[in-house]
Amino acid sequence: MEGISIISMLLTAVFALGCLYLVLMPLFKEESFLDHTRKSQSNGATKEALLTTLNEIEFEFKMDKLSESDYRQLKRQYESQVAKLMREEETPSQKAIDSDLMAEVEREIEASMQKRKKGDGK
Question: How many C-alpha atoms does 70 have within 13 Å on its Cβ side?
């Protein structure tokens, strides 16, 4: 103990407590953990997980590990979730396609009207 001073022991203790604080602090912030998991799990990953679960349910049913009523209930539940995700994925892209298509159609109509005006003026 002669070689170790009280100051060095205190600094070591403060350093250890600081490290412990930095390691444990994220575990107590539930909101940041939940936000991170929500952001990291995209619709595509969720859809893939649901489809994998559907395959597993079917496999277990064929292996006689699930009753038919349980199989049908679980299958219906997961299929509705997959369908909901697919509708959510489809909606924004359909709107973008529809607006782009409408803009193109309007340009073509405008161009054909311009051609007719030029043709009638001759």
Answer: 9
The pTM for the full model equals: 0.43
- Domain edges within the chain: 1-40, 44-122
- For the range 88-97, what are the long-range contacts, defined as Cβ-Cβ under 8 Å and sequence gap of 24 or more? 88/43, 89/43, 89/47
Q: What is the pLDDT of residues 63-89, one digit of tens each?
A: 999 899 999 999 899 888 888 888 877
Q: Do the beta carbons of residue 86 and residue 50 sit within 8 Å?
A: no
For the four alpha carbons of 22, 23, 27 and 30, in that order, the dihedral sign comes to positive
Contact 49, 82 (CB under 8 A): no
Could you tell me the two tokens for 33? 């953990």
| DSSP assignment letter at 3 | S
**In which element (H, E) is residue 66 found?**
none
∠ Cα 49 53 59 (to 5°) = 145
